[in-house]
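REQUEST FORM: STRUCTURE PREDICTION
Request ID: SP-0412
Submitted by: Lab K.M.
Chain count: 1
Length (residues): 314
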Amino acid sequence: MNISIPSILLGLGGKCLLNWALVFLQRNHICKSFLGVFSVSLAVVDSILTLSVTTLHVHAEEHTVLLGLKLTRYHVCLLVQILGQVYISLQWPVVVVAGLDHFFAVTRRLQPTTVRARRIVYIIVTGFLWYLTALYVFLLSDFIPVMEDVPHHQIHQCWVFHTTHILQVAMFLLLILGCAALHAWRRTLMLQNSPLSDQITDKSRAHSRRSVVHQALHTFLNTWALFLGFLSALLLLPVGIPAYLGLNIAWLCFLNSLLITVVLCAVCPGSQLAQGLAAVPADSFCEWRFKFSLAAEDRTDCSKQVNQPKQDLC
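STATUS: Completed
RESULT:
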């Protein structure tokens, strides 16, 4: 993609404003999850990139020297291409780490830790992820900058790589979400058709699974239906997304809600949610409130006690 430098600056400026607006919107709990801490780091990196590119473009006609290197508009295009490649390489690692974070938060597989300790861990993981991705781009990937063979004062456009990773990640996670929902419904049917000895218990479990899947999907689709339509339009239309705009906090907010939905549908912690034994990760857009009826479970416990032999009750 060949984009003019003023358009690049305008896009980066708009992205920075959107990033910091969403950080401010989520300020009360932004550092309570990995995606929140990573969002803050992304806003900082985008701001540094925008200021650097703007400064280089404004002072391109002057003799700007940094560490013995004369900075020109070549370096504007170079910075944008390098950061774009880093953003492309970060997509899947961020999805994997955020998914594991949400899974452990919902199932509570890890030992309880203080908010400060978790925040420190998130900061370390975020910094390590940026560092490893930068090493990969510079040392291991086949990334080669594309520059025009013209004098630097004649450069008014930059070659920019486009990304399809957003659509790939969205399609992959939506496919997993569909499989998890189908598995939960299939498991529900199996529990409903169980032997009569455990019929009451299994019906209660089936109702709990069905309730979690239904409420999670309903909450997610009610909030992000328009964004899903936008992604569908990008998939159908031959429109490329510039790599430097591909990774943004609006996308991370959608990713956060989608990962929460996937984990809830895959784990189906109905009884744990009802009893307060499971926690839903922080989300500024979806209101995760689940309603359960524990009457069936209470009847199950009572029936087990009534059907026990008398010698076991003494």
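NOTES: Confidence is low (pLDDT under 50) at residues 294-314.
Reviewed by: T.R.
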